[in-house]
């Protein structure tokens, strides 16, 4: 692959991040959010090989429940089989390419291709193919929809387009320990979020990793309860698979009888710092998990171009909280408003990235999560240029 001068320079810049202290890091160059060459490398190196979050297992609870999803050029059919297993099937008929499931979601024991009526089971096996007698190339017994890698972690559905990538769960053992008391797999969806943000996926990802922007972007929604000045970095995990931080509630928020940090979780035990703070985990490459003891606002940023991102996610809550209609109505409205504020930041940031005067700036110490994200990008996209990385590996 022949690199442009801009792409080549960006890779050199990324290669320097793993060896730079978090507190000394600058933001990415503006070209990192616009350059088509870097985007192509990100697609080939990251999104065709990493585990990507696309949904929640309890949103397809019954056999036959399904939803469709697109990752890069791959159309997926995510279905809970009649055997209870969740699979990521290729949503392309084995006859003449028609997508099998045409809607966004549904429930069915069998899938019938709208083109020629071929029928598939929830495990992807061909059940029937009308009028195929006489075809010398047709073998019903061996005809099956291809399957992509899928894992469920903490109640979240992840897929991977690479058949040879290591399993996900062992990579996230440190995050499992951090989330043990939150029992994330028990949470149920308060509302789902699925939209397009007109900006680069990295802008959206960075925004979901830090609390410093509360004092500006979320001044009317979050700052009073979760003031930016009370954000604290947590030690970076040795694995380098995620970054995390906390923002402690204001005194007024702690004294409220109801709120994100005060919802009851029968059977759950939380440490004092867990009860008194919101916790954010940024799973690399593109996932934000922002949580309290009873809630989790998850977002996954799927690129659909250098300057467009599909944002999927949901506000998931403890079953006891979900049962309170009044609390849920207010909470859903607040989280939706916060997500929309983040979306506005993304497209406004993207608008200025081609300015000749735009230049990297210093990160706040509360934005060390972004510095660690840049380190991940450097290790992943420019390992051959990063001093010491090849020897370390």
Query: How do the SSEs run, as a string of H and E?
Result: HHEEEEEEEEEEHEHEEHHEEEEHHHH
- Quote the average pLDDT: 94
Number of β-strand runs: 17
> What are the segments in which pLDDT stays under 50 over at least 5 consecutive residues?
none
CATH architecture verdict of the largest domain: Alpha-Beta Complex
Q: What is the end-to-end distance?
A: 24 Å
Q: Which percent bin holds the helix content? A: 10-25%
Q: How many structural domains?
A: 2
CATH homologous superfamily caption of the largest domain: Naphthalene 1,2-dioxygenase Alpha Subunit, Chain A, domain 1
* Rg calc: 22 Å
User: What's the helix count?
Assistant: 10
Shape: globular
For the report, how would you describe the main beta sheet?
A: 7 strands, antiparallel
Reading off the top of the CATH hierarchy, the class of the largest domain is best stated as: Alpha Beta
Structural class: alpha+beta
Strand percentage: 25-35%
Strand order of the largest sheet: 1-10-9-4-3-2-5
CATH topology of the largest domain: Naphthalene 1,2-dioxygenase Alpha Subunit, Chain A, domain 1
Please explain how this structure is put together.
With 393 residues, the chain is α+β, with helices and mostly antiparallel strands. It has 10 helices and 17 strands. It folds into 2 domains: 8-50 and 173-392, Alpha-Beta Complex (Naphthalene 1,2-dioxygenase Alpha Subunit, Chain A, domain 1); 53-156, 3-layer Sandwich (Rieske Iron-sulfur Protein), CATH 2.102.10. The strands form 3 sheets. The protein has a 7-stranded antiparallel β-sheet with strand order 1-10-9-4-3-2-5, with no helix packed on it. A hairpin with a 3-residue loop joins β15 and β16. The two termini are 24 Å apart.
């Amino acid at each position: 692959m022949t690199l442009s001068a801009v792409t080549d320079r960006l890779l050199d810049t990324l290669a320097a991040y793993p060896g730079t202290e978090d507190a000394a890091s600058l933001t990415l160059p503006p070209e990192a959010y616009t350059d088509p060459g870097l985007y192509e490398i990100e697609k080939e190196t990251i999104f065709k090989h990493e585990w990507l979050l696309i949904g929640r297992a309890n949103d397809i609870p019954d056999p036959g429940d399904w939803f469709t999803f697109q990752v890069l050029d791959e159309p997926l059919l995510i279905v809970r089989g009649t055997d209870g297993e969740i699979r990521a099937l290729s949503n392309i008929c084995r006859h003449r390419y028609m997508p099998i499931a045409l809607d966004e979601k549904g429930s069915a024991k069998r899938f019938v291709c709208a083109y020629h009526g071929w029928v598939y089971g929830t495990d992807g096996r061909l059940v029937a193919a009308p009028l195929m007698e006489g075809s010398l190339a047709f073998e019903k017994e061996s005809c099956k929809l291809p399957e992509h890698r899928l894992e469920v972690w903490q109640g979240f559905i992840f897929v991977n387009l690479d058949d040879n990538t290591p399993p996900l769960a062992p990579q996230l053992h440190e995050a499992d320990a951090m989330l043990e008391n939150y029992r994330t797999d028990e949470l149920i969806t308060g509302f789902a979020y699925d939209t397009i943000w007109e900006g680069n996926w990295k802008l959206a990802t960075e925004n979901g990793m830090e609390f410093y922007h509360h004092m500006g972007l979320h001044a009317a929604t979050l700052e009073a309860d979760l003031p930016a000045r009370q954000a604290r970095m947590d030690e970076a995990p040795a694995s380098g698979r995620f970054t995390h931080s906390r923002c402690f509630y204001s005194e007024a928020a702690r004294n409220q009888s109801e709120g994100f940090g005060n919802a009851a979780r029968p059977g759950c035990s939380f440490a004092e710092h867990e009860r008194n703070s919101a916790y954010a985990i940024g799973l690399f490459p593109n996932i934000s998990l922002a949580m309290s003891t009873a809630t989790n606002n998850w977002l996954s940023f799927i690129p659909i171009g250098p300057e467009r991102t599909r944002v999927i996610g949901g506000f998931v809550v403890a079953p006891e909280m979900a049962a309170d209609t009044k609390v849920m109505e207010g909470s859903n409205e607040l989280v939706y408003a916060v997500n929309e504020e983040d979306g506005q930041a993304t497209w406004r940031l993207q608008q200025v990235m081609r300015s000749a005067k735009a230049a990297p700036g210093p990160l706040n110490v509360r934005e060390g999560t972004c510095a660690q994200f840049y380190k991940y990008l450097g290790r992943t996209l420019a390992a051959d240029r990063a001093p010491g990385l090849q020897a370390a590996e």
